[in-house]
Design a protein that fits this description.
This protein has 233 residues and is α/β, with parallel strands linked by helices. The protein is 36% helix and 26% strand. The structure holds adenosine-5'-diphosphate (ADP) and magnesium ion (MG). Adenosine-5'-diphosphate is lined by residues 11, 14, 16, 34, 36-42.
Length: 233
Amino acid sequence: MIQINNLHKSFGKLDVLRGLELTIDSGKTVAILGPNGSGKTTMIKSILGLVIPQKGEILVNGNSVKNNWTYREEISYLPQIARFPENLKVKELIKMVQDLRKTLSDPEPLISLFGLEKFLDKSLRTLSGGTRQKVNVVLAFMFDSPIIIMDEPTVGLDPIAMIKLKKLIKEEQAKGKTILITTHIMSVVEELVEEIIYILEGKIYFRKSLAELNGTVKKIGLEGVIAEILEEV
Ligand SMILES: Nc1ncnc2c1ncn2[C@@H]1O[C@H](COP(=O)(O)OP(=O)(O)O)[C@@H](O)[C@H]1O
Ligand SMILES: [Mg+2]
């Protein structure tokens, strides 16, 4: 379970998170939606300890993330902007990440799923955006962690790779994992998530289960539903 209480984060004068409250139960898949700059990535980085909030508390499986590193072993993270050491070859990067994290990993099936064999000896600098994102997916999914956090995982992926990624996510769901995704792709939301959590101006603006919205989604589509809710709230 991930629990966020009264989270505040500002960068200089910019208040990004303003008292954010959120609980995600174990085994659930949720989508974090919201306009660009609403604080989604900042919230995710706070969960991972990559951003230090000024105020508030984050608990992962009941343990505060403050001054604690061990909880990160429980989380697989797919960052929005992956910064790779550009001179490394793909296979060296995979090896490096495996060595950094001591838990068991199995990259081979993922390399084969995304057809990355022919890129293993190429340096990261030479890869296209889509191929980099596939490597990013391998790095996140090669560990068997109970929590998976993905920040815009589909960016740059071609339709076939997108279908493969969705199938991977469904397999992880079937194992009972807790999954948090930010995305602007409504098909990802409709096919995969149980709840949408909408962030606006650093707070949770609304939270709805897809089951609850089902009838309306069928009529006007998910984008239409979200637009309607935004008008109501
Ligand atoms: N390290 C940083 N320094 C200064 N401003 C930042 C930093 N990280 C994010 N921001 C700003 O915080 C706001 C929220 O960013 P972000 O959490 O990335 O939004 P989202 O992921 O919802 O698009 C944006 O205005 C962004 O420019
Ligand atoms: Mg973001």
